[in-house]
Amino acid sequence: MSSSSALNDPEYRTPGRSSGLFSLFRQRYLLSLLMRKGTATRYYGSALGWVWSYIRPAAQFLMYFLVIGVILGQNRGIELFPIYLFSGIVAVNLFSEVLRNTTSALVDNKSLIKKIFMPRELFPVAAVGVGFIHFLPQALLLLVVALFFGWTLGWLQVVAFLGGIVLILTFSLGLGLFFGSINVAFRDAKNIVDIILMFSTWASPVLYGWDMVYQRAPEWLYHLYMVNPMTSAVELFHDAFWLPLSPDSPRPPDLGTHVLISFGIAIFTLVIGQLVFRKLEGSFAQRL
């Protein structure tokens, strides 16, 4: 093929050009390779391997249950508090895993970024996939515990569960694109993310009920609290696993409206994260 005909070929792409997240549809094989690499190396050299994906959430649950549930009395204030607590922990762990992975994805793959061109979004998106894969054992453990307490499957539970996952992945990917691109030049971004993750468990109804905020906070602060994407995601996880076992428990007023606003915030975060990422990606190879 001559050079002139190559330039007119619809499959021809100028080297270095990318369509952002949309370009990943043409790079599915590379994305799968990066996900397999991230999954295979997660517990490389570990004697227990994937067993840690069960031990960590179980140990986290035990610590919070003893301190918050037994010593501080939330076990008496919230019906079936173990399911309530574990549902929230699983949701927050997914957010923490994905945000931490996406923030460090570019730095962790600097050898590839400096040598060859590929859409840079491949790395944070692959990190999202790896985080989701490592979330599945925790979700399975939650399902087993819920079944032990008499949980039954229903389409509303499935919709709430999947909605919570999509909300968390969208929000965390947006934040990960933003902080990950900044982290290339300023490693302080990773420390900011660590602070966000430190607050994430307490800024959503994981260790306490939403009604504590409703009763004690000003109305504007309560609504601000409820449209936090992680608050809505945790409540969706509660709807999926805890509410069917505690049908008489009160639910937050206007939860549907808050969830829709949370999705809007998550999508807005994703758009801003992508714009910042595209703005800075030209200097990734040099700065790394």
Characterization of this structure:
This protein is an all-alpha fold and 288 residues long. The protein has one domain. The chain has 14 helices and no strands. The protein has helices at 3-8, 28-41, 52-71, 74-77, 81-108, 110-115, 122-148, 155-185, 188-200, 210-216, 219-226, 229-242, 255-280, 284-287. It is globular and about 60 Å long. The model has no long low-confidence stretch (mean pLDDT 85).
**Helix percent band:** over 70%
Shape: globular
Strand content: under 5%
Strand runs, count? 0
CA gyration radius, whole angstroms:
21 Å
By secondary-structure content and strand pairing, the structural class works out as mainly alpha
Order of helices and strands: HHHHHHHHHHHHHH
| Residue runs with pLDDT of under 50 for 5 or more positions | none
End-to-end gap: 37 Å
Mean pLDDT: 85
What count of structural domains? 1
| Major sheet description | none
Q: Helical region count?
A: 14
Protein name: Transport permease protein
Membrane topology: Multi-pass membrane protein
Family: Belongs to the ABC-2 integral membrane protein family.
Main location: membrane
